[in-house]
Amino acid sequence: MTARFRALCLGLSATFGLAASAHASIISRDFHLTASRFSLYCCAASPGPVDPVTLDITLNFDNSADVQATTAGMTLNSFNLLDTVQFAYTAFGDGLTIATDIPDTFSCNSHANSFCAFIHDASSANPTLIFFQQVTASSGAWRADTLSLTFTDNVRDGGVPEPAAWAMMLLGFGGVGAMVRARRGRRRQPWTASVYGWPGQARP
Questions:
Q1: How far apart are CA 142 and CA 57, in angstroms?
Q2: What is the DSSP letter of 38?
């Protein structure tokens, strides 16, 4: 494999491979959660829980890295329990936490007027709601026995590459163009030797 051919391969790899992966790990998904049949886990039984609880939330996150508790990239479409909501993501286990108060990526604080939900395999084709708890105003902790989760993937607008991907694409195309120009130049000046010597050499 010649040096020029290797350069061509590297250019094509930079152009297509890196550009294609620029958005590979960005998740934009609507989650539709339903939790029902709540059982008292701790403390005061009155007032009782909201049952069922329904939550419709849109989340945008990068599943290649942890996301600390935030509201950025989140849209609360509907929720019949509370208004205070944030989320966190842990790449290890592909886990989402949606809750009132999140101290780290896969846990939540339980206090009066709070809730907590855990979703496993959040960015996969089969995310699962594995836990939902609500805490009432009197600090009664209620956990759902029946959990349901559906989701809808959103089409991200455009597929416009990141600036770094644009730079690599331009570099790759530039390398390919230089190779084509060099090859055309060589065709104009054949280098095949003859019995009288190389082209341009005086005939004896």
A1: 21
A2: E
pLDDT confidence band for 173 (50 / 70 / 90): low
Domain range annotation of the chain: 26-153
Q: Which stretches does DSSP call E strand in the chain?
A: 26-42, 53-62, 67-70, 74-79, 86-90, 95-99, 114-120, 128-135, 141-153
Task: State the angle between helix axes of 163-188 and 3-12 in degrees (0 to 180), rounded to the nearest 10.
Answer: 150
Taking the C-alpha atoms of residue 109 and residue 186, their distance in angstroms, rounded to an integer, is 71
Taking residues 96-120, what's their average pLDDT? 93
Q: What is the pTM of this model?
A: 0.67
Which residues lie across from 55 on neighbouring strands?
Answer: 33, 79
CATH number of 26-153: 2.40.128
Q: Between the CA of residue 121 and those of 16, 93, 108, 143, 184, what are the distances in Å? A: 29, 7, 18, 21, 53
